[in-house]
Amino acid sequence: MAMPAAPLSNDTPRFRRARLRVFAMLILGYASYYLTRNSLTYVAPAMVAPVGGVAGLDITSVGLITSLFPLCYGASKFVAGVLGDRFDPRTLLAAGLLVTALANIAFGLSSALWAFCALWCVNGLVQGCGAPSCAKMLTAWFAAGERGTYWGLWNLSHNLGGFCAPLLAGSAARSLGWRMGFFAPGAVGLCVSAAVYAICRSAPEDLGYAPVEEPLDPAPERAPLPSPPASTAQRPTAPTGPRARPALLASLGLVARDLRIWLLALTYLCVYVVRQGVTSWSVFYLLDTGRAADAGAAALRVTGLELGGLGGSLIAGKLSDALVARASSGRVGMRIRVVIGYLVALALALAAFARVPVGAAGLQWLAVFAIGAALYGPQMLVGLCGAEIVGRGSVGASEGLLGLIAYFGAAMAGLPLATLVKRHGWGAFFRVLTLCSLLPIPLLAGLVSARAHSEGSADTARENSK
Fold this sequence. Notes:
Layout: H1 13-47, H2 59-84, H3 89-109, H4 113-127, H5 130-141, H6 144-176, H7 180-199, H8 248-256, H9 259-288, H10 295-301, H11 304-326, H12 331-355, H13 361-389, H14 395-412, H15 415-424, H16 426-438, H17 440-444, H18 453-465
């Protein structure tokens, strides 16, 4: 059947339903990445237990395994981001989840330290397929005026996966043995991987709809999608000519030469030092300073981090969209202003947590909640700004580079911060985290009027039409 003269309108209930299905799969898919990423954190206590654990495994061994992950993940996020500009992001998202699920299952079948290290490196190397692929599809399916809201909603998948990990992996390990703590997340990952591949589509054009924003930068053709089944063969589809995407090396070069991306990357590094530092060491801080009686009580005090992150990322997205709607230009700059405000709030929340007195359990929980609310907003918005600064065809490379630098920050929050605490105490720990919260502000000051890639191209198009 002949192709229609024009793509289908995306201002229809049918399009909105299709977009909602894709969005739901992005949330579920990335939450499953988080589930398979965090399983070790909650299964490790059962692995080192004297009864039912792994013979010869101790806390130092677990530290060795976990120290490999951020470096592997950061490198993979960069590579997967660049590849995501060349290959179908839907396939990349589903394939990465499939492999990380299999890595969890294989981990549960292993008993040797070398195998644990190797498999967790594999897990880290494929985890990077998640965020850049989701960023590509979010950018393709949602226009700039609503993107902050939906990016914030998608960011809840971090919290959803982080919340489910102790419930599924931790509970399975405690009740059924440590191996089941890896089998259960692996089984979930396998099922969700199949659902993502079946339901997601990389862009509206894959279903015959018009793009929500016109592609503005040339790009190589992506591998074609499979032909539709006979039952849908007569459905109108969009033209299948080459998609506008930059070549692989050209995409990376465009991103790497953009000073604004490097300023965002340094901001991300600082944010991830704080994030990983709070996540890894808050329980130890509460125990060492006598603010919690035992590990269970300390863990309960820090549950506010994820809950605060839920609200913080949603509000950040809505607030930045409201500023974008009122601004005539400089979309990225509007979001940067929200990031700066959140970073100031993060520094204040860290100061409050450090000063909550012994015995004030409720205030400790509230301080951690405030840290989460102030922390997840910048984490979400920096990635969104990176996606909007570059063209649609370079979003994956942008997210990959940002992720690579961010996880260097996460690695710095491990052994370096532990050594700092051992030598100089918890006061030095909080001073470093506060410095990391405030250091990005002068870096971002020059971006408060930054424009999105589509704004610059739209101006050029208007000039050419005169």
